[in-house]
Sequence to fold (539 residues):
Amino acid sequence: MTDFLNDLFPEESAIPAHAQIPARIDQREYLVGGALVTWPGDQAPVLSPVFLKTKNGSEQKVLGSTPLLTSKEALEAMEAAVKAYDLGHGVWPMMTVAERIGHVEIFLEKMRAKRAEVVNLLMWEIGKTQKDSEREFDRTCDYIVDTINALKELDRNSARFVQEQGIMAQIRRVPLGVALCMGPYNYPLNETFSTLFPALILGNTVVFKPAKYGVLLIRPLLEAFRDSFPPGVINVIYGRGRETVGALMESGKIDVFAFIGTNKGANDLKRLHPKPHRLKAILGLDAKNPAIVLPDADLANAVSECVLGSLSFNGQRCTALKILYVHASRVEEFNKRFCAEVAKLKPGMPWEPGVGLTPLPEPGKTDYLKALVADAEKHGARVINENGGVSHQTFFYPAVLFPVNNKMRVYVEEQFGPLVPIVPYENVSEAIDYVVNSNFGQQVSIFGKDSRQLAKLIDAFSSQVGRININTQCQRGPDTFPFNGRKDSAEGTLSVADALRVFSIRTLVAAKITEGNKQIIGTIIRNRESSFLSTDYIF
Fold:
């Protein structure tokens, strides 16, 4: 394995033509007020997790750089968004739903033309396989289409009047104001756009800061953003979060905060807002999702789902299975099968066909994972899979740890990487206690056949997590399902329909049902005197 890892990273000449990265990308443009502004100041280097063999040894690929903007530029972007919103009277929030949908459809067409470029940058920037990078791009486009269709349905439902207790009313959803959207590095396109486009399409204006890793892949879309939306509706900034985002929050002019990251990061930023009660937050945060394998589980299915759940994209997913509880009567067989399946995962570069394990983008990640392994071994666990924990540069071969107990850091810390802790248990109450006492509450997976036992666990966890998966791994999709969490794992709910709700507020026009009022409202509607009060809708 050591020899294999030494040969893992290629020479530049061995990279296939379709995956080759162009010349160094030193991006100096950022988008503010409908214009691409050139930044003359310092730049942040963008490094790939991929190393290349050179005559001087392995060298990390430098992809380019992005602008290190300051609070001044961030606040200028915010003021452009504030101006475009204009207290709800700007061009964008006052547009009809059909008109806003038209602008989003223009962007989507331009975005699809950049598919190959964005997919390639996903591979190089965060080490995501070509297949998964293509899936992320296509899923993001599908999400935007689904958002458009969901808004059409919402608009149709809102076009009617309701009558209750002598009052007639029309209830519609309107935007909240200026939104700050920030996404994670593991899904820098999909999870960012899953908040960005619901915010936009409902009439909010946006300041968007790309993820810390996976930042250059937004560059091919900057012109599409500029050309598809009115000035100031979407503003894209770069730089250190504490300086840029901190200044935005301290201004008090951010109305909606959409953030996917750590609960500590979210808490730190929310505290900066001078009027937190006025700040609407939509947060996707940490998770430590467990799998519970019951004595009667179908082990073939449980192993297959747990390998996918714990090691897809190297375990770098908030929905990943991060700890496995396996009944003592089945744990020996489970471990044997699990390690055999892990051994089938192909290490390699993101563009290689069939690759399942790739380099990690976070600096210092392999050292962190090795420290977790060392701590677990100190408290009685061992690495039970061949070559587990072997690393080279940014690559870390998955380590399966057994038996794991509550003295170990990996028992409570979200490893967010290819490290799989397995806990043997005698009584299912041990697994229940783990979920109940956890600071996190996103999802849980349960593997078994006994309906009574499954029902007991469903009832135990329904007040602890946002989603209970039966005989399948934890996951976000389908995007029409609610995606949320309890405790430190989330605030608010995301799905195609839920996202439209969280970025808007219901406002109604109401009047007593009298002949005079009916005549007044009828005149407003017939003469189209109001953009809000209308019975028009989109087919």
